[in-house]
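Input chain follows. Return structure tokens only.
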Amino acid sequence: FADFPDFYIQDPSLSEWGGVYVYVSEANALMVGDEVNFNAEIDEYYGLTELKNLSGLQLVSSGNSPVSTSIATGDLGLSCGAGEMYEGMFVEFAGLTVESIDTQYSSVYVNDGTGTAKLDDYFFSFDAGSWPDLSPGDTIESARGVVHYYFGEYVVYPRDLNDLSGLDGSGPVAASIYDIQHSSEQGDGEE
């Protein structure tokens, strides 16, 4: 956290328009669950609302448990629109199916049946385990993370592997025709 002191804050009493990204160049280390007060300047940076130039940072309390707001993937979507109300908020999706993977950036496109949303590992802490190796068709019981906006799309950043539960990894498996034809699990040819 000391190398990248930026953070998100959220008003736990709000289920919409309750979070924001806080950009800082230097700060005392804060922990997840810290309640803080400060003054800041509001800025719109490439479509992302953020707070910057903090002053008077005060730690009010610590050890608070962040509570996620349950939303549908279609409520967030990808492009700018209604999803903006969740920008900077800690959200949770449930009952997800992996639609596609962007292997260049480790982005996972998921859908709960209401529309596509994106998960990405940009702020992922690998201390609790690796980013999952998923395939289209895999299911995820639930995914939590903070909503961010970059390169024209909304994305949810899980904090670590604990924010992804019920990973089944049972999607399609890549196999060559040779592997299929020479499998020990061949049928008797009768259908």
